[in-house]
Amino acid sequence: MSVAHLSLSAARCLHLAAQGLLKKPRRRARPADILAAIRRMSLLQIDTINIVARSPYLVLFSRLGAYPQHWLDDALRAGDLMEYWAHEACFLPRSDFALVRHRMLNPQNMGWKYRAAWMEEHAPEIEQLLLQIHENGPVRSADFTHPRTGTSGWWDWKPHKKHLEGLYTAGKVMVVERRNFQRVYDLTSRVMPEWDDERDLLSQTQAEAIMLEKSARSLGLFRPQWLADYYRLRQPALPALLARWQEEQKIIPVTVEELGPAWVHASLAEELALATAGKLTATRSAVLSPFDPVVWDRKRAEQLFNFSYRLECYTPAPKRQYGYFVLPLLHAGQLVGRMDAKMHRKTGVLEIIALYLEAGITPGRTLEKGLLQAITEFAAWQGATRVSITRCPPGLFTDCTTGWEIDPA
Q: DSSP string of 357-378?
């Protein structure tokens, strides 16, 4: 069987098609699109930084366009979604509970996410907490006070927060909603009354096989080393699995310019045919989150998009190269740049502290039009009435060097 040879540009388009980022949405978003988009990505990583819209909301905006952010909260509250450790802390379809249940039942394998010594030392208090939830309903960490006043920081969490995090990792409680982005926990037995570990539990091997197939579908085009990172799996036995998938026609072997052998998930067979004919084109311009699946695997982003990215919010300010919370910029199938931005909610201004274009990317009318529209839509969705620019590459946004107003219409 002949193996299709793809340009790097075509490979990027296949990946973006799988992720829902190839073209602009054809219609306005609907509430059901939240779950559909997360199913397409398999996972939606959670991060709490809110210097602009928090990451999970932004990842959805990049794909769906403007939508009310509470739709994500509604989907969690309605039971369409759940939270658990997948890539990292993630939203995932609640129907995927079986995929992570084996992790819950073996929390000692979850590393820093579960402190067995703490849970054993405080077992009586934790049992009392579970009884309180059983009798009085869901709780937040915020419902409990810290025994020491004036403390702060994740390294000095109050005891009940540590209790709840441990119970969450061990699958004794689940997140049923978020209030002001704070987790609300209820008993897993109450959230999933139909679940039976004896009847429904998948083994780790069974669950990880499904995770790998979901990863392949969500990546669209992949190299073997990209698969394991999607759900943070530890060195799965891929050669035999890939051979079996190929026999079952679940994946299609290809070669990619500069990358070498790769595979395309069979769900993209039509797109692959277009790509090999040079007819698959990317037209989407979008602001991405640092935790978007397109860039969360930094090695993959560098190999596929030649985009070297590091999150610098935990780096001391004098040592940062680009900024605190730097957002990748997608345009026409390439990661063309990045911007350090901040949303000033009281004044309605999205401040672009600095915008950088990648090496080899030169300003032009098409690029400027795409980025101008993407940034304007990004700002308007967050309620901004103006975009201000402090630092920008020469030749970009030549007619609005200090920023621009946003038409409320």
A: EPTT----HHHHHHHHHHHHHH
